[in-house]
């Protein structure tokens, strides 16, 4: 409880919350695999890692930050597909490393960071987009689909299509490159036995 409040206080005091999230997440994700050098990973965890990467890439191709409310592609299913993708990545790494400490470290940082981030971001989006965002929240779950969102997803005819240019503009390739590095370290470490 004290650790949770402490991390949230530090996070809330951070001027650029996204930078804080990036630094902590990258530190945990890149450093932890080094501690498990020589252990045999459970490679089936990569199914979740792959799903997370694909979901994040799909969402990044629809997200026009600070321009408009995202309302196409995976944003019809969940309000925060990028964060859901990150949670899937974290779960995949937890499974792959299969150790209680990894579960606490990665699971704890992921849960604390995204719970706070989602609350903060939704307050800002509600102020910015008002009634439109409130309706969107009623139809679409934060990290899981709702019936209203599923109906819209399967019936929606959008002018907006996935944009690889937008994917690049949002720098989502950095996530993919990071995952490749982490998996390379795990692969090399597993072969060092």
Task: Please outline the helices and strands.
Blueprint: H1 2-13, H2 17-35, H3 46-60, H4 81-97, H5 100-129, H6 131-139, H7 147-155, H8 164-169, H9 173-190
Task: Note down, in words, how this protein is organized.
The protein starts with a helix and ends with a helix. The model has no long low-confidence stretch (mean pLDDT 84). The protein has 193 residues and is mainly α. The protein has one domain. Helix content is 70%, strand content 0%. 28% of the residues are buried.
Tag the structure with descriptive keywords:
9 helices; about 190 residues; elongated
Q: How many beta-strand runs?
A: 0
Range of helix content: 55-70%
Strand content: under 5%
Backbone structural class? mainly alpha
Quick recap:
About 70% of the residues lie in helices and about 0% in strands. The chain is an all-alpha fold. The model has no long low-confidence stretch (mean pLDDT about 85).
């Amino acid at each position: 409880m004290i650790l949770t409040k402490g991390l949230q206080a530090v996070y809330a005091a951070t001027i650029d919350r996204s930078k804080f999230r990036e630094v902590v997440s990258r530190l945990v994700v890149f450093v932890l695999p080094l501690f498990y050098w020589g252990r045999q990973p459970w490679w089936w965890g990569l199914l979740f890692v792959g799903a997370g990467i694909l979901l994040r890439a799909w969402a990044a191709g629809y997200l026009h930050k600070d321009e408009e409310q995202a309302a196409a592609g995976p944003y019809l299913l969940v309000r925060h597909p990028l964060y859901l993708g990150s949670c899937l990545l974290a779960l995949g790494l937890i499974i792959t490393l299969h150790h209680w400490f990894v579960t606490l470290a990665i699971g704890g940082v992921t849960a604390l960071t995204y719970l706070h981030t989602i609350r903060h971001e939704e307050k800002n989006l509600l102020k910015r987009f008002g009634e439109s965002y409130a309706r969107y929240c009623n139809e679409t779950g934060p990290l899981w689909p709702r019936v209203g969102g599923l109906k819209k997803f399967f019936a929606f005819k959008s002018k907006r299509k996935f944009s690889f240019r937008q994917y690049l503009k949002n720098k989502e390739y950095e996530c993919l490159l990071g995952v490749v590095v982490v998996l390379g370290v795990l692969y090399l470490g597993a072969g060092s036995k």
